[in-house]
Structures are given as structure tokens and as C-alpha cells.
Specification:
By secondary structure, the chain is an all-alpha fold. The chain is built from 18 helices and 2 strands. The protein has a two-stranded antiparallel ribbon with strand order 1-2. Keywords: Cell membrane, Membrane, Transmembrane, Transmembrane helix, Transport.
């Protein structure tokens, strides 16, 4: 008994301060503290897309429509690399550190980078070989299709950079360090402000590359960020200290990442498929409608990195608590984070519904484009809070390693959006009905996730278990 008693303080004394904060700090304050730099980083990353869209919009409606065709595929890669598999990497590291398995946490770095390399090359091959077929199926034709192919070929030629950058950022965030990825992303985003127009339009002797210039600027951003994060990982300042000479490829470590990442990828695929199908439905109303819908729905995509600002700390906090056996605290973390995320996304959605042209007119002034985008934001914007609720609970579920119900919720969203939109068009109800189906789909997505976790999808009904285990008073 005495040896056990003395072992606990010694073990606690060696606990890293970042890990201790995740296990013992006040939940709301800790989430906000960790989320603040992360919201900044995700806002900056969202700004990367806005900067690019703003300048490409100056090339005309066809270029903007071409970019809208590619955008769901680019976001699929982003969400899989940063959210699905990146979440799996962060969750695995957090759980290893929470359980005080430092050597496993160090070894996970190499396993994560190997997964990222394979998937990056797979995305590159798929987009370069199948891009024309895909964008044509999404409704692209003529100049819009050619613009889409030009942009897509450049972006996906550098897919490996995107995956490695997001893997390194996820590993560092999983260790509780939110500040470094934030700093790297913010600095890179600021550099894009002059770099994007320089490569798109040219200057002096430097020729303009058009829409390809926007893609090249994006790849330069990821290349510089990858170098910065990699140098930190090799320095003595990183909590993770991968040692190549000690590396042993271990299937359980691959499985620890993939069991969360693969399941998350299914959910991510469902999200992007819902947008892609809706894009194809909207395509029947013309290129201006595609541009309007693509520009308006970009705001929904931008909510993903903003919610990820809370989502990354949720993965780390929930994963660390689960690794340490603190299940009740893990659930409290999830609900507090979900409430903060839902409030943030609902505020943005209401603002977009009230002032839709303030957003849309940043990118184009075509009346048909503005009309389609306005209808989308006025119908779907007011339910963005459900999207924030669902997405934050998805990230929390990654930390817990329990992703069944988030997948079911996302598949339900896909079914409602696709089937509802198709039925609306068959009935001749027009574009507004397609958008109404998307709004209903977001409500379903949020409610399925929230109800499932509230009913014990992670650990069962903890309250019932506590009551059963409590001593009964003597008669």
C-alpha cells in the first residue's frame, strides 16, 4: 500500500504541464485558452481561401464557376487531411500522452507521416487522372470546365505537401501545443496577400498565370509551413521527440490512427458528397447559379476551420481525459465545446442571412450569381448553429475514439440533402427548395449527433452506472 501511495505523486510530478492542464484545468477557460490561437489559425486558413477567391473572381464569372467546381474536392482533401486523419493522429497522440506512454507518442509521428504520404499521393493520382470526368459530372462545361481543370491540376500536383503539413500540425496540436500551428498559418496567410495577386496577374517582367497562379501561391504556402513545422518537430522544444534510430513499425500504432481516421473519412466524404450533389443539382440553372451557390456555400465550408478552432482542443482534451480514465470530464468537455461552437456558427449564419450581399459582392457583381447566393444564405444560414453543434461533437468523438454516431448523422444529412433536393427539382419547386433540403439536412445532422451522445453513445449511461455502484443506505 505504501509503495503505491508514493508512486502516484511521483508519476504525477513527471506529468507535462500541458497534459496536466488538459486533465485538471477548468474546462471552459482551458477550452477558450486553447481555442483562441486555434480560432485565429483557422480564421487565417479560411482567409487563405478568401484571398484566392477574391482575386480569381477578378478573372470573371467563368473562372469563379470553375473554382466552385473544384472547391468541394479541395475541401475534401483539406477536411480528410486536417480533420479526419489529422484528428485521428491528434487523438492517438493525446490518448498516448494521457496514459503516459511517451515512447508510443513519439513513434506515432513516423506512423502518421507514412499514412499522410500514402494518402497524399493517392489524392494526387485520382485528381490528375480523373479530374475532367469528375468536374464534367458536377455540371462543368466550356470555359468553366477548362478553368476548373487548370486550377485542379496545379493544386493536386502538390497534394503531398497539404497532407504532410496537416499531419505535422495535427501531431503538434495533439500534444497540447496550439500556438505553433497558429503562428505558422497566420504568417503564411499574410504572405499570401501580396503573393496571390502577383502570381495571378503578374507584375513587371513576371507574367500572370491566371487561375493557376492562385493554386501555385497556395502550394508555396504549404511548402513553407511544412518546413517550419518539421524544424520544430526536430528541435528540443517539441514534446514529441521522434527518433529514427529507435523506430519500429508497429501495426497497433497504425491502427490507433486509422480506426479514427478511416471512420472520420467516411463522415468527411459524406459532407463533401452532399455539397457536390447539390452543386450538380444547381448546375441545371446555369454557370451564374453555380458561381452563386459555390460562393455562398463557401461560407459553410469556412465554418469548418472555425469550428476546428474549438475542435482541435476538443480532440486533445477529450482524448487525454479518456486516456487517463476521466470519462465524466470528457463528456463535460464535449458539451461545453459544442455549446460554444453552436453559438459561434449560429451568429455567423444569422449575419449572413440578414446581409447576404455583403458577403457575395466581395467576389462578383453578376445579378444572377447574387440572386442564387442570396437565396442560399437566407434559407440555410439560420440553421448553421446545428452544423456547428454536429461538427464540434464529431471532433469530440474523435478524441473519445467513438465515431459511429457522427457517421450515421452525416450519412443522414447526405440522404436528406440529396434525396430532398432531387425530389424538389422533380416537383418543379425550383432552386429555393433545393436549398431548403440542405437546411433540413443540417438540422438532422446536429440532432442525431447530440441525441446519440446524450443517450450514452460513448460510454453508456454514466449516471445509471454510478447509481448502481453507489452504496445503499442501511435499512
Amino acid at each position: 500500500m505504501s509503495s503505491a501511495a508514493t508512486a502516484a505523486p511521483s508519476s504525477a510530478a513527471t506529468l507535462d504541464p500541458r497534459t496536466r492542464l488538459l486533465l485538471e484545468g477548468p474546462i471552459a477557460a482551458t477550452l477558450l485558452r486553447l481555442a483562441a490561437p486555434n480560432v485565429l489559425v483557422m480564421g487565417a486558413q479560411a482567409g487563405v481561401g478568401l484571398i484566392e477567391t477574391f482575386f480569381i473572381g477578378k478573372l470573371g464569372t467563368e473562372a469563379l464557376a470553375g473554382m466552385a467546381l473544384v472547391f468541394p474536392v479541395v475541401m475534401l482533401m483539406q477536411m480528410m487531411s486536417a480533420g479526419a486523419f489529422g484528428g485521428g493522429m491528434a487523438s492517438a497522440v493525446a490518448r498516448a500522452l494521457g496514459a503516459r506512454r511517451q515512447r508510443d507518442a513519439d513513434a506515432l509521428v513516423f506512423h502518421a507521416l507514412a499514412i499522410a504520404a500514402v494518402l497524399g499521393l493517392a489524392f494526387m493520382a485520382a485528381a490528375l487522372l480523373g479530374g475532367r470526368w469528375l468536374y464534367a459530372r458536377l455540371g462543368g462545361s466550356g470555359a468553366a470546365l477548362e478553368a476548373a481543370l487548370q486550377y485542379s491540376d496545379w493544386v493536386f500536383a502538390g497534394a503531398l505537401l497539404v497532407w504532410i503539413f496537416n499531419a505535422l500540425a495535427a501531431l503538434i496540436r495533439g500534444s497540447g501545443n496550439m500556438n505553433l500551428p497558429a503562428a505558422v498559418t497566420v504568417i503564411g496567410s499574410l504572405a499570401l496577400v501580396p503573393l496571390s495577386p502577383l502570381l495571378i496577374f503578374g507584375w513587371g517582367p513576371l507574367p500572370g498565370l491566371g487561375i493557376a497562379g492562385g493554386a501555385l501561391a497556395l502550394l508555396l504556402y504549404y511548402a513553407a509551413g511544412t518546413v517550419a513545422l518539421g524544424l520544430h518537430m526536430l528541435s528540443g522544444r517539441s514534446l514529441l521527440k521522434p527518433r529514427w534510430r529507435e523506430l519500429q513499425w508497429r501495426l497497433p500504432l497504425f491502427a490507433d490512427i486509422l480506426r479514427v481516421g478511416v471512420v472520420g473519412a467516411i463522415s468527411t466524404l459524406a459532407t463533401n458528397l452532399a455539397i457536390a450533389i447539390s452543386t450538380a443539382l444547381v448546375a441545371g440553372f446555369g454557370a451564374a447559379a453555380i458561381a452563386g451557390y459555390g460562393t455562398a456555400s463557401r461560407l459553410e465550408y469556412l465554418l469548418v476551420p472555425l469550428v476546428f478552432g474549438f475542435g482541435a482542443p476538443l480532440v486533445s482534451m477529450v482524448g487525454t481525459c479518456v486516456g487517463a480514465g476521466q470519462r465524466e470530464r470528457a463528456l463535460r468537455v464535449a458539451w461545453i465545446g459544442a455549446g460554444l461552437s453552436a453559438a459561434l456558427t449560429e451568429a455567423i449564419g444569422l449575419a449572413a442571412a440578414l446581409f447576404p450581399r455583403a458577403w457575395l459582392s466581395l467576389f462578383d457583381s453578376d445579378p444572377a450569381m447574387l440572386d442564387a447566393g442570396t437565396r442560399y444564405l437566407q434559407i440555410v444560414g439560420p440553421v448553421y448553429g446545428f452544423f456547428g453543434l454536429a461538427l464540434s461533437l464529431y471532433f469530440a468523438s474523435q478524441g473519445a475514439g467513438r465515431l459511429l454516431w457522427p457517421i450515421i448523422g452525416n450519412l443522414a444529412r447526405l440522404l436528406v440533402a440529396a434525396l430532398g433536393g432531387w425530389l424538389a427539382l422533380r416537383a418543379g419547386w425550383g432552386l429555393a427548395a433545393v436549398f431548403a433540403a440542405q437546411a433540413l439536412a443540417l438540422i438532422v445532422y446536429g440532432l442525431v449527433n447530440a441525441i446519440a451522445i446524450a443517450r450514452g453513445a460513448w460510454f453508456g449511461p454514466l449516471g445509471t452506472a454510478r447509481a448502481a455502484a453507489a452504496p445503499r443506505p442501511a435499512p
